[in-house]
Amino acid sequence: MLFPNKVKHRKWQTGRKHLAKRGVASRGNTIAFGAFGLKAMSQARITSNQIEAARKVIKRTVGKTGSVYIRVFPDRPVTQKAAEVGMGKGKGAPVGFCFDVKPGRVLFEVAGVPEEVAREALRKGGTKMPNKTKVVARL
């Protein structure tokens, strides 16, 4: 799984998920390395486990000849309180990391494989994501 080596702050404030205020991605919204990419169509918080699950299925589908590029990195800590603990007594302990995705962000890219294989691999990877995605090609 992906996680940062070191973080400046162990816990972050939660932030809000209102789509109207978040807008669309202004960076990371074009294909840079591969020929085909998986683009996010809605907002979500993607955990490192979900990124790893998608990477595994994409890599398995493209085989040895294809290259997979991960365009997101989870650096936002996620906290969680223990089960059956009452309200109050502070914020929970960090349990993992996530990445805030805005609509239009390219999550994965694939190169070195035919179009049918790339589209099928990215489609399978998109099923592991918590948001709506679509496969795009380099123009």
The CATH class of the domain at 33-78 and 92-137 is identified as Alpha Beta
Structural class: alpha+beta
Q: Outline, from the CA principal axes?
A: elongated
Report strand order across the widest sheet.
3-6-1-7
Strand content: 25-35%
**Radius of gyration over C-alpha positions, nearest whole angstrom:** 17 Å
- As residue ranges, the low-confidence spans are none
How are the secondary structure elements laid out?
Blueprint: H1 19-22, E1 36-40, E2 44-47, H2 48-62, E3 67-70, E4 76-80, E5 93-101, E6 106-111, H3 115-126, E7 133-137
Antiparallel strand pairs: 1-6, 1-7, 2-5, 3-6, 4-5
Describe the structure.
- The protein has helices at 19-22, 48-62, 115-126, and strands at residues 36-40, 44-47, 67-70, 76-80, 93-101, 106-111, 133-137.
- It is of the alpha+beta class.
- Helix 2 (48-62) runs antiparallel to helix 3.
- The chain is elongated, with a radius of gyration of 17 Å.
- The mean pLDDT is 93.
- The protein contains three helices and seven strands; from the N terminus they run H-E-E-H-E-E-E-E-H-E.
- Strands 3-6-1-7 form a four-stranded antiparallel beta sheet, covered by helices on one side.
- It has a domain at 33-78 and 92-137: Aldehyde Oxidoreductase, domain 3.
